[in-house]
Amino acid sequence: MIFLILLVLAGSPVTATSEEIVFVHEWGVVLIDEVIPMAQGAQQGYLDELGMLQPYYSMIVDAPVLWFHGPEFTGTLTVEVQNGYFSILIPNPAAISTNDESLPVFPNEEKYVAVWKDLSFTDEVSVHSDRPSDRISAPGDSAEDGFEWAMPFWREVPALTVTYEAGNFEDRFIYYECSASNLFAEQEPAESYQRRSLVFHSEEGELKADLVVAPGNRISIELAVSDEGILEVLSEWGNDNFLEEEIEALWKTWKPSILTRCVQDGEVIILFPLTDEQVESISTIDLQIDQGYVVEYSRLFLAMGR
Q1: Average pLDDT over residues 95-122
Q2: Is the whole-model pTM more than 0.85?
Q3: For residue 193, which phi and psi values (nearest 5 degrees)?
Q4: Whole-Å CA distances, 178 to 24, 241, 245
């Protein structure tokens, strides 16, 4: 009898395991002191010899970064912007759609939908890309030139390699930009950052960070947070769902901007996490997998401003 039971179990379909789950990790930063808040992955510019970000584009650049983890698979990724617009998509999809119509250009509508069809996700050891890879860069003309200083940070994340043949694209991430004009429709920014935030400022030419927390109704400040402490805070804000390399990529990408604004320009900058509802009000992402794997999403959006 036991032998028969084992035979039946051996021939039974295997239920979903952790290896059949695809994890989508996304982070971005929203500059809330702009006229139109933008969800950003990085700001355009180049790093100087002091590690500060020097802009050379007048255009505001906005974009979150997405990584994919799990088994190899193929599928379609859809990103929909709520009450806003895209400004840059990397890779550029073959077409974007709105109102169930596929169009090669962006229509002037409230909702924008970008669709990348026939994506392939593989566990490649290295990315063979002719895209910019130097961290200290010179100004260029293409849309990607503005991010070339940050892309190497994103490629250091041990994620699946994304191949999009329609766009002749192969890299470890997908990158999009969108506006976030309705971000604080329900509440003022102060109601968010008074609960938990990082405050950056310059002290004797050095970048300093203070952690603001609110135990009960009393706000307290923990002074002089180190880089290691900042990484711990960012990881906690992401509910510890992100890889260490992803959190490090976030800090490496945005520290130059904070350094420039605080040390060079003398500003005091505040950084705090957005709620799940606020993130969903900016954009939604949907990954449809041909192999039927379960998809789990982790999204960390931060607000930053003076």
Answers
A1: 67
A2: no
A3: -80, -15
A4: 18, 24, 24
